[in-house]
Amino acid sequence: MDKPLVMVVDDEKEVANVIAQTISETGRYDVVTVYSAKDALQALAKHKRLLGLAGNSIRLIFLDIKMPEMDGLQFLERVRKDYGEDIGICMLTAWEDEEKWDRATSGFVVNYLKKPFKKEELIRTLDRFFEGREGELVLDTFEKHIQKREEFKKQPPATQL
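Above: the chain sequence. Below: its structure as tokens.
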């Protein structure tokens, strides 16, 4: 049986390669690594299953937010428009604020992990997703978002220089 296919999308090549290596080292997943949202859209098109077979062979995407040309949140919106919710998406980014959380959770991401990532957390996300616990992940992420909202409200407003 084929291993589930995961895609890593990050414009920082070294970071993307470390994420991909972490996933590959489990021995349970195959990985496609791309360095831009544009290349990720091409990879999704390439891995689209033939008529009669639903969806895409890429089942889960680890996605950075800050990228040139098309950022991760724009890519998320595009994937949801073109592929629906058939493909799981986990944000994996150094960027975290209320607006990004709002946009990510409205796109039903399965998780929102911060860089530098924790290997155990990344693998736990993979395993839970492929155990069929995607719904739990989405709910957990939404609950984390509610908690984050409270944290964001307690932070003093940013001052402009």
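DSSP finds six helices and five strands in the chain.
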